[in-house]
Please model this.
Amino acid sequence: MRFRFLGNSGLKISELTYGNWLTHGSQVENDTATACVRAALDVGITTFDTADVYANTVAESVLGDALAGERRESLEILTKVYWPTGPKGPNDTGLSRKHVRESIDGSLRRLRTDYVDLYQAHRYDHETPLEETMQAFADVVRQGKALYIGVSEWTADQIRAGHALAKELGFQLVSNQPQYSMLWRVIEAEVVPASRELGVSQIVWSPIAQGVLTGKYRPGAELPAGSRATDEKGGASMIRSFLRDDVLGRVQDLRPVADELGLTMAQLAIAWVLANDNVAAAIIGASRPEQVHDNAKAGGVELPAEVLARIDEVLGDVVVTDPAETAKASPPQRLV
Model:
């Protein structure tokens, strides 16, 4: 396992990070979730990403239980705040000082730790002044409850504004967590250049495009039984935009590229996002320990420039690149 610096900080995280969105507390039983976490540790993953909203706080508890007994100093634990949690009252969401303060305490309790290494704004809150949010994060850092602060799916302008306020308040904004894959490249035009300039890294989610880049979905074929695309509670709505025959056909054309490199399609997809020098880590999830072991083999894979160019040629115009897509990830009003 290789490790990369997170932004311009001195913190290193494993370039493959284990995430439990859609799995722990919902899709898989707790013993299976624990087995997946053990598999992650076995392959050298030390960085674990979760959020209070995953399974309405249950995912944090499952992860905390699975990591119990591990040396805390040898782990990097990441969580997030923004989306509605608990009974979902008017203040159980967003990035207000009240919700941030209450949420960090709840997350620490469920994760069974005194601090998290990275606390992330899960989306941009258009209804709370940015100054209030960043002051709340500054307090969390000063209290020792989080070492670093990050964001998720913020636009380039939002990252610039947040970074400037963080600097004024004496803490570091070191990361952004966007969706990024061969098929979804909306951060490349604006977010990545701004992040490079500011010393902010990307921790990317969905590097295999919700499973589409594994090649298991074929044009004109029935959706595989039990797959994410058939699970309305487990991400079917998010994968739908990729399930077009033109996209699926181009993905199948990537199979010879993976075969020539001795990689699975998933490993090729993960290695592709790690080829971007602004990416600190790719988040991988799993519903079975074997998936962790398989995907971990993407770590350390170097893709030659000619392979990257060939991938671009194969995928062509099915790739989504519009930077305006990032702004759509944060709703104009908080959801309750």
Notes: The first helix runs from residue 30 to 42. The chain has one domain: 3-327. The mean pLDDT is 94. The chain has 13 helices and ten strands.
